[in-house]
Q: What sequence folds into this?
């Protein structure tokens, strides 16, 4: 493993590129628009600066990490020398299937194709490629440079060799891999998302306010963020997409998304990325202010 191509320069893609580049791999970050790539590289620079500021990285190591990252807007060119491709596009099944057909057509025969999907079936994604044995889930957590876990998901056809390669690689970049099987939501979101959805339901039914629900979970369960703040951080559109995958995948009404979550996404209240969700976000401020819609 030497050359890693990362598809998608959003929040997850830039974090994945960051950790591979910091561990000495040659990374090609691919997206359709150059300005998204430039923004992603600037974000990686800022996040590396945080590590330099706290002394966990030297200025030289930061420069080397940044020098390890190239960008590409042409998918075919971006994956042609890859040993591993990690796809981190939006959580949309049709988009992922299209991307995997394109990667499969352009990446070298031995290249492993990984997806950072948070809930979509690896087996379904693998089925649109001519190499299902080499397709695997590599699910990083946000913020990628900080969170230690990589959930490694075996599809129906994924081989032992490919699984071991990805487990070892995850360890080599300083993460702790956990191997799981391919059912909707895997383990992380099978447990996390119903908790977040239940927190929204608790708010919807008026059992508690935004601050009260989050405080109960932060102070009572020692979670670093309350579930409503975490939903804003992940993105309410992503939370809704994952609940829909669980609901459809298991056909069980317990996974039905809360109507309030559906309504907020319809209204464009997506959390941090749109500036408002359960909280109101102001650029440059770290204050946690409950959104006007939920203020008492
Ligand atoms: N890159 C590098 N370092 C970063 C960073 C980034 N993007 N973001 C934060 N950090 C570092 C900071 O520099 C800081 O380092 P030190 O403590 O060593 O100084 C540390 O992380 C903590 O950051 P902050 O002080 O800014 O803020 P905080 O203490 O409130 O922590 C947090 C922020 C790490 C995000 C913490 O609130 C947290 O762990 N929240 C929960 C995150 C979580 O649950 N993530 C999983 C989401 S689910 C998911 O990703 C999967 C899915 O499929 C939906």
A:
């Amino acid at each position: 493993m030497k050359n890693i191509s990362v598809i998608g320069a959003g929040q997850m893609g830039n974090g994945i590129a960051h950790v591979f580049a910091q561990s000495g791999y040659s990374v090609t970050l691919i997206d359709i628009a150059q300005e998204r790539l430039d923004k992603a590289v600037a974000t990686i620079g800022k996040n590396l600066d945080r590590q330099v500021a706290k002394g966990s990285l030297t200025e030289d190591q930061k420069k080397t990490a940044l020098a390890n990252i190239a960008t590409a807007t042409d998918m075919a060119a971006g994956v042609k020398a890859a040993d591993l491709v990690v796809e981190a596009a939006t959580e949309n099944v049709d988009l992922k299937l299209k991307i995997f057909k394109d990667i499969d057509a352009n990446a070298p025969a031995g290249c492993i194709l990984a997806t950072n999907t948070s809930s979509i079936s690896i087996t379904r994604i693998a089925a649109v490629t001519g190499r299902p044995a080499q397709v695997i889930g590599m699910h990083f957590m946000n913020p990628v440079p900080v969170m230690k876990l990589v959930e490694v998901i075996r599809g129906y056809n994924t081989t032992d060799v490919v699984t071991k390669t990805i487990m070892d690689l995850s360890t080599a970049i300083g993460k702790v891999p956990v191997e799981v099987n391919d059912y909707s939501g895997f383990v992380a979101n099978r447990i996390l998302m119903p908790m977040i959805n239940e927190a929204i339901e608790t708010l919807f039914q008026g059992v508690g306010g935004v601050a009260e629900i989050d405080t109960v979970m932060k102070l009572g369960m020692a979670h670093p963020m309350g579930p409503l703040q975490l939903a804003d951080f992940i993105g309410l559109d992503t939370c809704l997409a994952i609940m829909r995958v669980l609901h459809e995948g298991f056909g069980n009404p317990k996974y039905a998304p809360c109507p309030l979550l559906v309504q907020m996404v319809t209204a464009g209240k997506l959390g941090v990325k749109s500036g408002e969700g359960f909280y109101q976000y102001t650029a440059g401020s770290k204050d946690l202010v409950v959104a006007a819609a939920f203020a008492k």
Summary: The pocket of acetoacetyl-coenzyme A is lined by residues 47, 50, 54, 118, 141-143, 145-147, 188-189, 224-225, 230, 234 (CB under 6 Å). The domain at 3-181 is CATH 3.40.50.720 (Rossmann fold).
